[in-house]
């Protein structure tokens, strides 16, 4: 029997073989990274970037960009009820724009331009009861002194995009002091150890954000999952001579749906410390968020890609079907 392949069939076969080749290359690449001896690392540095460019090359609106540099380290002190105590320092910047970054008329600003620059210090207590509590404080500035326009111009020049217009109408300068808390509690897992779920909660109070949220964190492991007290999922993977754990290989897909109720958002409503911002909007209090992503370790590194979606956060938006953006994270462990 003779099989005759049409031109389209040859194209399909070629694409299939090319895809398999790329997949096997990536698999070998990551497998090489995964082969390392078990060690203890007590410090970590990381870089995290949020941007709608990571889900669309044409969308640039609302929560437009976030940059975060972190340094985390494990406490040397040991307490009876606490398995680990981790300290974190962070420098963060968040940028918000209307439905597009080039809006010359103030009447077209369906959301205010806003920049938020801050420093953060946090303490994470990992309890022996499979619970985690993180408390933190942000100190910074909202408004022109946060250099939102300058950072957006810098990013747009890198990618060859048009420079933003309309920043002269951004939220006015105001002091930022915000307190935060996050609480996670393990719920359960299946007998194979490949699936688990935890309850996650957060609260913020201050001059920039005041809100509460609750939801779930579900993991599907590509290999058996690590426990809540020693996982990149919960940023608890640091260890020293006082801990019973070591650095473990991890690879999993996760989904994190949450519901948030916002009482105040200065990036939308303007700050009560500096009234008179030219563009302010009314808050939509109840917001649904979902994060879907992949996290995996590779030698001293661990990486993450996350797809983020949230329903509309303010009234009068041109696009009312919510906002999407991506997150790329790179973490590196130190002794």
Q: Please state how the strands of the largest beta sheet are arranged side by side.
A: 1-2-3-4-5-6-7-8-9-10-11-12
Helix content estimate:
10-25%
Low-confidence stretches: 1-5, 7-16, 31-35
Structural class, from secondary structure content? mainly beta
CATH C-level: Mainly Beta
Distance between the termini: 65 Å
Give the DSSP E fraction (strand runs of 2 or more residues). Answer: over 45%
Report the total helices.
Answer: 3
Radius of gyration: 22 Å
Say what the CATH topology is: Lipocalin
How many distinct folded domains?
1
Order of SSEs: HEEEEEHEEEEHEEE
- Note the overall shape: globular
The number of distinct β-strands equals 12
Q: At CATH's second level, what is the architecture?
A: Beta Barrel
Overall mean pLDDT: 90
| The CATH homology group name | Outer membrane protein
Description:
13% of the residues lie in helices and 46% in strands. The chain is globular. The longest helix has 28 residues, at 7-34. The model is unreliable at 1-5, 7-16 and 31-35 (pLDDT under 50). It has helices spanning 7-34, 148-159, 266-269; strands spanning 43-51, 62-74, 82-97, 114-127, 131-142, 174-189, 195-206, 209-221, 251-265, 286-298, 301-310, 323-334. It is built from three helices and twelve strands, in the order αβββββαββββαβββ. β4 and β5 form a beta hairpin.
